[in-house]
Amino acid sequence: MAIKGRGTLQQRANLDICLLAKSKILQRFLIFLTGMAILGMLLTYKVVVFNRSPQETPEDYDSYGDHLDRELREEQATESTPNENAEEVPHENAEGIPHDNAEEVSHENAEGIPHENAEGIPHENAGVSHENAEGFPHENAEGFPHENAEGVPHENAEGFPHEKAEGVPHENAEGVLHENAEGVPHENAEAIPHENADGVPHENAEGVPHENAEGIPHDNVEGIPHKNAEGIPHDNSEAIPHENAEAIPHENAEAIPHDNAEAIPHENAEGIPHENAEGIPHENAEGVPHENAETIPHENAEGVPHENAEGIPHENAEAIPHENAEGIPHENAEGIPHENAEGIPHENAEGVPHENAEGIPHDNSEAIPHENAEGIPHENAEAIPLGFNIKSFNVSTKPIVTTNSFNLTAKLLVSTKAFNVTPKQIIKTKLFNVTTRPQSVTTNNFKEKTKAHDVPGRLSIVTAKSPNLVTVGHNVAKKSSDVIIKNYNLTMMFKANTTALSKPIKLQKPTLPPLDYGDTYTMDDTYLKSTCPKRTRDTLRTGEFKDAFLDTIPVLQWKKYANVSEYQRLQKYGGAFGWSGVTWDIVNETLNLLNASNGGYLFDNWKGRRPCVRCAVLGNGGIMNGSGMGKEIDAHDYVFRVNGAITKGFEKDVGNRTSFFFFSTNTLMNSLTAYGRQGFKQVPRSEETRFLLLPDHDRDYLLVRAALTNSTIDRGKDKSRIPARYFGQHLTTEHFKILHPDFMRYLRNRFLWSPILKTKFRNIYRPSTGAAMLLAAVHTCDEVNAYGFMTPNYAKFSDHYYDAKYKKVVFYANHSFRKEMEVWQNLHKAGVIKLYMRNGDSNPQEQAYNQRT
Fold first, then answer.
1. Which positions ≥6 away from 19 have C-beta within 8 Å?
2. CB 491 within 8 A of CB 427
3. Top-confidence range, 230-244, 492-506, 688-702
4. How far is CA 178 from each of CA 84, 168, 527, rounded to the nearest angstrom?
5. Is 796 helix (H, G, I), strand (E, B) or coil?
6. Sign of torsion, CA 537 541 544 545?
């Protein structure tokens, strides 16, 4: 048993030794596998790191849709990117002009000059002759025919790139990647992409991109003169890129060269050189140089710093640029005077102060919303809701040191009581004028006087009654109500060491300068040529609209109106009513693109299937939800839609076709933001779709100009935007239509006049975009059916047909929705339009959504 036991122990020992040996082998094998895995990861990392492309992050995108803008710009950039070789010697262009390679060996192009061409003519590279395009063998530095040292084939006869031993694109003796026969971009020693298939010279030794249209060679290694597209030499001491359409150095409209101490590019309308002390770019319509002590960029018609539409200079203590029609600081896109506690400018989709996505009346510093009885939004520093019949209150001012001047922004209230002002000493204040009735105001302990401007106290308008432009018409002049001014900070022309006022000042009621309503218009007979036996316009000639209607009113503007006399006539009207905010060059260039022979006719693609043009005009009102009118709408000859025109998911109620999409640039951008979640991701686009624009800013003309030239917007609020991202590429002049400013003034003066035009807030008012669309259809179509517009029972329906839940309709000061609703009812009763109306239960839209979900 003992022997047997020892045998067993020996066997166990041998087994343990065997297992230990196997364990060590297994450990070594695992170490080997681990090492191979790490090596594989390193190789993978090397490939990924050295071959990956730069990636954009979401933070790179400025706003909705800008990533598509950037992709389009990058595609355009790859077509004309400059280059240079390893020795900074210029390459050859597409016209066969010789240039040097890395070894300064001369080579040329397809005309038989060295530097390989499509005919297999030999050229040199690092001293070794070789050929290619016709399959001739060529050698590399080691003498291998048509292959490199590792037997990898070189470039083929079609100019496709080829590889060397490591699969890296073909390089020359200096390690610079070559270009293939099709001008495909390649890189030099600095990995700068370039191409010259179209004769565009590539980058010089300083890495400054430059180009010319004719392929004329140039260089500027040390600021040496180089030629532009017409061979005219010009200098650039800082190697700043520049170009222009006429090959003029430092572009300006009249080809006059000019300097800039800091080499900052600049231009003006008359080509007059100008500069300021800080090298800040600036311009004005007359090319008059001007300065700004705070280096704030600015422009105006006469070269006056910080000027408004009336040429009144004004200042801003925080150096915030601003202007508006009345010279009041802090303006939004519609010229609405407003302010907040921090003096921050703001706007929204309809030009209502204090921007929000829905255009809801705005908040003050305490976030308390408020508006007065007329729906005019306003604000105050103490978060006090303002309205009519506010009782008097005291205003005390504390000592103020070194304050700048400011303009008086007064709120007009009816039947308010006087209030006391007890100002303390104010040191070193600048002067300003208080506009009151023509008289002087003098206080007991105050020697300075406030002199009033002599301004009329009544309003008047000039109107036209007949198609022959005879002036008569609606007399809206009324005596102003007695008002006093309250809720503002009063600074009365104090100088140093003034004494306090001992008695309150009762201010006289202010008056407004007369508004030029501009009720005289040019004439257009385009829509008198219809052969339809019964037209909407015929009905307008009778009944209550006979004095308002003009059958020769121009609806659209196009090349016909691009003339200086028309520009001068319309320059005195602002916003949607004229061209006061648009320079002549922008108007001229844009309208000349709208050069179709029938540019004034809205239905240029009408097939003439029948004599009468039938139009369906779609508003976005909640009354359309559950209407089931989709098929009826799509059966019309033309379908008009406006702003956030969502059809997907609502085809049964509103149809699917869009013949005309109606918008302004401002409402379009805000609609894409505000209604994106509901489904408005892009504008309607189909083969039949035309874009009908209501222009109320220069940005509208800039958008059309860029869209029709397939280019990027080059200035203004929308600078760098690409309209092709919204409307598509390859647009023709027929794709865009622009309303005439005369038409918008005509609608305001004769159909949609509002009492707000008699107040200080008159400049914020214009007909709503939907109202302009419907009335444009009334003046162009032969038969008009309107859907989705406000009806007297509007409260029973949500604001929009695509609202996820019931939303109350909100009224704003810059539009008169109630007046528009009244006009729709009258047009319907007169038989001019057929307005879709229906009864509705309490919150029927909410019930419909509940049934859906």
1. none
2. no
3. 688-702
4. 11, 12, 63
5. helix
6. positive
Mean pLDDT of 330-343: 41
Q: At 417, phi and psi to the nearest 5? A: -85, 165
Tokens of 497: 């060491």
Over 80: is that where the pLDDT of 121 sits? no
| E strands in 629-749 | 638-642, 660-663, 690-693, 736-739
Enumerate residues 6+ apart whose C-beta is below 8 A from 690.
659, 660, 661, 734, 735, 736, 737
**Euclidean distance between CA atoms 338 and 348, whole angstroms:** 13
- Kindly state the average pLDDT of the residues 131-155: 46
User: Is 416 in contact with 389 (CB distance < 8 Å)?
Assistant: yes
Give the tens place of pLDDT for each residue, 221-268: 444 444 444 444 554 434 444 444 343 344 443 444 444 434 334 444
The answer to whether residues 299 and 282 touch, using CB atoms and an 8 Å cutoff, is: yes
How many residues are listed for the chain in this entry? 853
In this structure, what are the phi and psi dihedrals at residue 425, rounded to the nearest 5 degrees?
-60, 135
What the block records as the tokens of 846 is 């909410």
Strands 395-397 and 421-423: parallel
Residue 30's contacts (CB-CB under 8 Å, 6 or more residues apart) are none
E strand segments, 328-462:
395-397, 411-414, 421-423, 440-443, 446-451
Chain CA centroid to CA 602, Å: 25
Q: How confident is the model at residue 113 (pLDDT cuts 50, 70, 90)?
A: very low
CA of residue 118 relative to chain centroid, distance: 47
Question: Token digits for 735?
Answer: 């794709």
pLDDT at residue number 826: 95
- Running DSSP on this structure, what letter comes out for residue 363? B
In angstroms, rounded to a whole number, what is the distance separating the alpha carbons of residues 734 and 598? 9
Helix (H, G, I), strand (E, B) or coil at 153: strand
Give every CB contact of residue 664 below 8 A, 6+ residues apart in sequence.
576, 693, 694, 695, 696, 697, 700, 769
The separation between the first and the last C-alpha atoms of the chain, rounded to the nearest angstrom, is: 88
Which one has a higher pLDDT value, 7 or 764? 764
What is the C-alpha separation between 699 and 707, in angstroms, rounded? 12
CA Rg, the chain, in Å? 37
pTM: 0.46
* DSSP string of 36-67, one letter each residue: HHHHHHHHHHHHHHHHPPP---GGG--STTHH
Query: Residue by residue, what is the 3-state secondary structure of 603-615?
Result: CCCCCCCCCCCEE
Residue in the structure block whose two tokens are 């681990």: 34
Which letter, b or e, does each residue of 232-253 get, where b requires 16 or more Cβ atoms within 10 Å of its Cβ? eebebeebeeeeeeebbbbbbb
| Structural domains in the chain, sorted by start | 80-215 (no CATH), 526-852 (3.90.1480.20)
| Maximal CA-CA distance, the chain | 140
Other CB atoms within 10 Å distance of the CB of residue 276: 20
CA dist 724 and 727 (Å) reads 5
Instruction: For residue 313, report the phi and psi dihedrals to the nearest 5 degrees.
Output: -70, 145
The crossing angle, in degrees rounded to 10, of helices 665-674 and 698-708 is 80
Do 196 and 91 touch, CB atoms closer than 8 A?
yes
Give the list of residues 6+ apart from residue 143 with CB closer than 8 angstroms, or none.
Answer: 128
